[in-house]
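This part of the workshop introduces the protein records we will be handling. A record pairs a protein's sequence with a compact description of its fold. Comparing a sequence with its tokens is the quickest way to learn the format. To make this concrete, we reproduce a full record directly below:
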Amino acid sequence: MELTPEKLIEMLEQGEALPNVILMYGEENYYRSKAAACIKKYVFGDVPAEDMEISVFDRDTDLKRLNAAVNTYPFFGGSSLIIISDEKIFAADKKQKENLEAILLNVPEFCHVFISVAKMDKRGRIYKKLLADGACAECKPLKPYQLKPWLDAEARKRGCRFEYEAEQTVMEYLSAADTAPLLLLEQEIEKLYVYAGQRRIWTRDDVEAVFSSLPEVSRFALLNAIALKNLPDALELLQNEKKHGGSAIAVSGLIAFQVRRLAQVKELAAKGMNQQAVAASLKTSPYAVKKLMEQCRSYTAKELAGFMLALADFNAAIRYGGRQFEMLEEILIRFLGKK
């Protein structure tokens, strides 16, 4: 059976019936770690840790030893748990794959196998067999614009909810990130829950107060200052990045991301596309697009194109060393100083 990682974790936590072989695969380690944290309780219940029969195969797996572990009845009776995180055995030669398949498709009733790997060939026989006879969940990283259902669920777990602007602010803070750091976000949401106390509706002010120490928030502030052509704030925030050991190349990339977004929004809006259409085209939240549509009016299309060209020249020039942050300052003064 195929499940979402959230549903699989929920079933594990609630002790619902699942097949004896569970596969969690994908690049998002957050979900795999959450499942690994509750698999022992699911299999053994309240059995003391010293009486749990657990075998871990995380590297250089010997299939004979794996087969023995799967088929050996637990010394103390009850159940046994096999944890497999060795990805190489799923990319072995044909004979080894056949042997592994035979083991995983003939797991005795007393044994539970939990497989947690970053990569799995969905075209292979093993995956297709596990999908048919086991429980499989693909753990895909979330893009910042995809966070709303996850944020809603995290708030709901705590009997709370985000106001619209509060939730959109979290997503905006992470807009420059390739993928959302779910583990970090979970920790910040727990802080938010404590900060709000008895209040069950979280506001934008709450989010700003709790998330303020995150590096992503400082970088968001820099990007926002650039969008607003606020030169004093932009220069101060750039100095903060330098003071905290930030990389000029990384900061340049963030600035380029923002300038590119402003240029894209300006171009699409000029074509007559509305807020929702632009958001869908750029795969970002309508709330963020609304702000960008207002902010991009501060720049002409020619200015944004020149800004991007200046950043490209900067990236080429810093290969030879020199005044990296000073050069970035000069670019900001050049383009943000124009009114």
